[in-house]
Design brief:
The protein contains 3 helices and 27 strands. By secondary structure, the protein is mostly beta strands.
């Protein structure tokens, strides 16, 4: 798809808390999210802002980012401060599954997916910068992102992929033969093969018109929705080609400067061949830094690292 179409906003739902960084829809069309004060929320009736209801499910004691719904209704939660958690959505229990690797704390656990056999894959965005200084990793282009694998019986995870540029969203293919990984720092999606003769290898999957954040797969037959946290920034692309010392100096300045998100927001949907099914853009948006998107009924729901609520938009016709 060469030209984007309009991302049409319908209404806004305030959550009473800032930073619904990831949004995921459950089978009943409710949307779950984690916010900056550590709470996990479930939002009902998003189609009508007059009847929308926000329910508190749990408190992680940290900063929840990526969420993954499990078949039993529990949540895998990637917490930037506490690691990978399992959260009971019925009783609010929080259990730490992984908080370190080889003696090193998981500084920036970002996203997780659970496969049918119980294996869990987790992205770590950066080994150098915490969430509060994420812009430093994007500018320095450290390539310290990782993909970890946690066996069904638990234990310490394995590093299966290293050197990723701000590893972020994760989504499985429809047939379970590969994972799609968002590399925010390189404006691309990467495919990691799980089966076949190329199992264990990574390869380019899709180049994107912006910086991808969270991914959300819409069922086995649907596309993978990609939130674009920012359009491409040509000066940043040029900076990434400079020597490491130059990038480190620029990163030190970036983490001290106030960050102003772009007024252009967008989402993309791709199929399992990496082809763009939808590319939706809104310019001069009041809702900024879109870090997640999911489909709930006839709507797209957008989350943000910075906003105090979620945006509900029109869902495009099938592509």
């Amino acid at each position: 798809m060469d030209r984007p179409t309009a991302l049409v906003p319908l209404h806004y739902v305030a959550l009473g808390a800032r930073g619904p960084e990831d949004v995921v829809a459950d089978p009943q069309g409710r949307v779950l999210t984690g916010v900056a004060d550590g709470r996990i929320l479930r939002v009902h009736h998003l189609g009508d802002p007059r009847t929308a209801l926000v329910e508190v499910l749990a408190e992680t004691g940290g900063r929840p980012l990526g969420l993954e719904l499990l078949p039993d209704g529990a949540l895998l939660v990637c917490d930037a401060e506490r690691g990978l958690l399992r959260v009971g959505t019925d009783d609010g229990t929080v259990r730490v599954l992984v908080d370190s690797l080889a003696g090193e704390r998981l500084r920036f656990c970002s996203n997780a997916v659970a496969l049918p056999d119980g294996t869990v894959y987790v992205t770590v965005s950066s080994r150098r910068y915490p969430l509060s200084r994420w812009i430093g990793d994007i500018v320095e282009h450290t390539g310290t992102g990782r993909l970890l694998r946690l066996a069904p019986d638990g234990g310490e995870p394995d590093v299966v992929l290293d050197g990723l540029q701000f590893a972020n969203g994760l989504a499985p293919s429809a047939d379970g033969s590969f994972l799609v990984i968002a590399e925010t720092g390189s404006c691309r999606l990467t495919r990691y093969r799980l089966t076949g003769p190329r199992a264990g290898r990574a390869e380019p999957f899709a180049e994107l018109p912006g910086m991808p954040d969270n991914l959300w797969r819409e069922g086995p037959d649907g596309p993978v929705w990609v939130a674009l946290a920012s359009p491409r920034v040509p000066p940043l692309d040029l900076l990434h080609r400079t020597p490491p010392a130059v990038r480190r100096t620029a990163a030190r300045a970036a983490v001290r400067a106030p960050y102003r998100p772009s007024g252009t927001v967008g989402v993309v949907a791709v199929d399992d061949r990496g082809r763009t099914v939808h590319h939706l853009v809104r310019r001069h948006s009041g809702f900024r830094m879109v870090t997640s998107v999911c489909a709930a009924g006839d709507h797209l729901v957008l989350g943000s690292l910075q906003e105090p609520g979620v945006a509900v938009c029109a869902r495009p016709a099938a592509g």
